[in-house]
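Ticket #4471: structure export looks truncated?
Reporter: QA, pipeline team
Priority: medium

Steps to reproduce: submit the single chain below to the structure queue and open the exported record.
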Amino acid sequence: MQTLDLVPRLVPEVLSGEKRSTIRWREPQILLGPLRFTSAEPPIEMVVEVWRVTEMPLRDAAAFLGRQADWPDEVMLAAMREHYPAITLDAVVQVIEFHPPPRP
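Actual output as written to the record:
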């Protein structure tokens, strides 16, 4: 099964269904279907269903997700550079959209 690491602060947002997308750069290509998110702190694994993967320049991702007001270019770039220091607004990223994990 395809797997991605998830920063611990985002685990509650994925579990609640609030977070339904992730943006990745220079990571393995994600395909439609099951995806396992893992996080070290707390140690957790959860499976979501990827329903769309779209490649685009980072500068277009916020508008694509309807979050342009929340993520103007400078905010988006600063957040992404926490994980990918060399990323630019012209970098082609994967926007991965998923259904939340099933509730127990």
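Status: closed, not a bug. The export was complete when the record was re-opened. Leaving a note from the reviewer for reference: The mean pLDDT is 95.
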